[in-house]
Write a structure and sequence with these properties.
The chain is an alpha/beta fold. The protein has three helices and 40 strands. It has a 17-stranded parallel beta sheet, with no helix packed on it. The chain starts with 17 loop residues before the first strand and ends with a helix.
Length: about 425
């Protein structure tokens, strides 16, 4: 098209390079305007249609190379920006886009609002996919949709839900409600009223959970009240779920109900009991299992140990049907070997020297009896067996000694009787 095209519907407004419709104003170089009461003021700007019965409803393409496809009361004030349609939308950032919707604003450079209502993309290269009253307020930030969500950190993202905030740079809230991802690189997958405050911290879901430590994790759980929440405060700590758990120690672990890992490297597993179970030292392994503990070392559950409910000692699997190569032992031979076994008093190099023990060395025990895995360890089963065998051998020896003693006592009695008879005869 070359030259001006007269608006035949309103000949008094014949201006610009392309002007179709009623009461439009085209003042931009090579601009194009259609519809009614619309304004194409920017050079090479386009208003394809829309508008309304008066100037109050007009669309205004003010920026150079700007475009408004339709709708009413839309305004593109920046160069090379665009509004697809809708009502009262504004594209004020260079190369910004509003796809449509109601009262949306793309004010950041190359920012985008695809639609929805009352959304704002104010960060450069930011995006709001839709929803209502969402804000992408930092560079490269994103809000997919939902209600009253805000992506405030650079390159942060909120997928959806409501009242979610991604404050940290590169932080993420996938969804849910009232979740705040404050730490840089922090992440919340969903749930309600959760916080990921530490650097690269994570909350998988649940309710009122807090991952405050750097690189800490709360996978889920929590409850309806703050007293039910799980709190991972220690750096690199983890709470996989449960209720009222905390990890204040670095590299610590807590799970179950009211498990408290308050020391570095502590592991605390608590059952359903409604009372605190607290670690007492660094690098400590803690288990509260009021129903007992079972540890098996094979898939068939035929070898292992159990700790029964309320008990304080291990029960070793020892069913005869689970054993092979069963044969009697030479108890006297074991007693003889045991007499050659050095028993010493000592302390572990890994413990304080004041903590002492008594017992054989693994090398001596293995050399004499050949029992167990190797000459570096002693199974707790084998010393029991050796001791019981030795006791039986001693019992047999004791029986033999008793028999000999009885025999000797009888002989002594006979000798006494004979002596008494001899004395009587002399008299």
């Amino acid at each position: 098209m070359t030259g001006a095209i007269t608006n035949t519907g309103n000949p008094s407004i014949a201006m610009g390079k392309g002007n179709f419709g009623w009461s439009n104003l085209n003042t931009g170089t090579d601009a194009f305007v259609a519809g009614r009461n619309n304004r194409a003021r920017g050079n090479y700007s386009v208003v394809s249609g829309g508008g309304g019965v008066d100037l109050y409803d007009s669309n205004a393409a003010i920026g150079n190379y700007s475009v408004i496809s339709g709708g009413r009361r839309n305004a593109v004030t920046a160069a090379e920006a665009m509004i697809g349609g809708g009502y009262r939308n504004t594209a004020s950032g260079i190369n910004s886009v509003v796809g449509g919707g109601y009262v949306n604003t793309a004010s950041g450079e190359r920012a985008t609002v695809n639609g929805g209502r009352g959304n704002i993309a104010s960060g450069n290269y930011s995006t709001v996919g839709g929803g209502e009253s969402d804000t992408a307020g930092a560079s490269y930030s994103t809000v997919g949709g939902g209600y009253m969500n805000a992506s405030i950190g650079d390159a942060a993202a909120v997928g959806g839900g409501s009242y979610n905030k991604a404050y940290g740079n590169y932080a993420t809230v996938a969804g849910g409600g009232g979740n705040w991802s404050k730490g840089n690189f922090a992440s919340i997958s969903g749930g309600n009223s959760n916080q990921a405050n530490g650097i690269a911290s994570t909350v998988g879901g649940g309710s009122i959970n807090i991952a405050h430590g750097n690189y800490s994790v709360v996978s889920g759980g929590g409850g309806a009240f703050t007293t039910d929440s799980n709190s991972a405060t220690g750096n690199y700590s983890i709470i996989p779920g449960g209720r009222s758990n905390r990890t204040t120690g670095h590299y610590s672990f807590a799970s179950g109900r009211r498990a408290k890992a308050d020391h570095n490297g502590a592991f605390v597993w608590a059952d359903t009991t409604n009372s605190d179970f607290v670690s007492s030292a660094d690098n400590q392994f803690n288990i509260r299992a009021s129903g007992g503990v079972r540890i098996y070392t094979n898939t068939g559950l035929t070898s292992g140990v159990t700790l029964t409910a309320g008990g304080s000692s291990w029960n070793v699997v020892s069913d005869s049907t689970l054993k092979r190569n069963i044969r009697p032992v030479n108890e006297k031979d074991i007693l003889e070997k045991l007499s050659h076994l050095p028993i010493k008093q000592w302390s572990y190099k890994s413990q304080d020297p004041s903590i002492e023990h008594i017992g054989p060395m693994a090398q001596d025990f293995y050399s004499l009896f050949g029992l167990g895995e190797d000459d570096k360890t002693i199974s707790t089963i084998d010393p029991d067996g050796v001791a019981l065998s030795a006791i039986k051998a001693l019992y047999q020896e004791n029986l033999e000694l008793k028999k000999q003693l009885i025999h000797l006592e009888k002989r002594i009695q006979l000798l006494e009787d004979q002596k008494n008879r001899n004395i009587g005869e002399v008299r």
